[in-house]
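DATA SHEET
Item: assembly model
Revision: 1
Owner: S.N.
Input lines:
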Amino acid sequence: MAAEGQAIDALSQFALKPFLGGLGESVRLSQSNGHMLIALGLIAALMMWGTARRAIVPGRVQALAETAYDFVHDLVVGQVGEEGAKYFPLVFSLFMFILVGNLLGMLPYAFTFTSHIAVTFALAMLVFLVVTVIALSIHGTHFFSYFFPEGAPKLLAPLIIPIEIISYLSRPVSLAVRLFANMVAGHVMLKVFATFVVMIGGAAGIFGIFGAALPLAVNVALIGFELLVAFLQAYVFAILTCIYLHDAVHLH
Amino acid sequence: MSEQDGFTERLRQARTRQGLEQSKEPAVKTVGTGPWGIGFRAGVEVVSALVVGIAIGYALDHWLGTWPWLFLLFFVAGSAAGIMNVYRLFKPRGGRPGI
């Protein structure tokens, strides 16, 4: 699977396969959906187990659950304001789902469901539609003044309004592409360098073993970098959701 | 008491030196880390606005049968929107937080 002939096959890792062999095939469940279910199970387990004991001095799991909660809560309240706290469940669900999905993809044999644009674009459209509905329900038709900044000359309206509308519509696209591209790029790089290790190691005998150490070292560094990216991209997705919510609640 | 205050001040300075003390107003880091991250963010912003502009222009042309005029118009509008996106990316927040 890694190197067939001399070609580096870095993209087959993103192909969809039935989850758990015959079982997934019979219910048409791909391993992408399977990993989403695993991620949901992990998040539910973390939050339920973490909040079950309600100890004054938290144990490890409770500390992790509380840290995650506080982190996202501070993010939402800091960005949207106190009235934004009611959108906390949305942002928390999105953040945890993407974070656990990204981290799950770092495990050997696991699949990264955030590396499919269908998944990230669905999440981004969810954010976009929710934010637009919130803005419309709070401000009504006044929401459309968002597309024309106050104080701009009326003469420029035919120029500014289409540009602002395109800019607004580009939000879900950039949100989806950013997450998708980061995850794909990271996993392709990991695969390429892992293939180098096998190719060089198998090619030149004793020198090959020493030569393979270099791409192996690169891969170790890349794993660390990918863990950072996994967290950072979930954070960026969450904070951009908060910024959009801020715009929806306050308009300007 | 003054000894106590001096200690608090020195502790604060030491913590700041070690990077333990958080600044009061945490800077909003929506821009990625390092030059590559920033470049990537800006690139995604331009491309996504361009994609939306092209899609709108293409769809309108297909509908109204005016190929290629609306496509060209919305291509330009999409580029302008992309540049607006990048401008908002680096504009300090306080005015209108864009993207």
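QC remark: The two ends of chain A are 52 Å apart (CA to CA).
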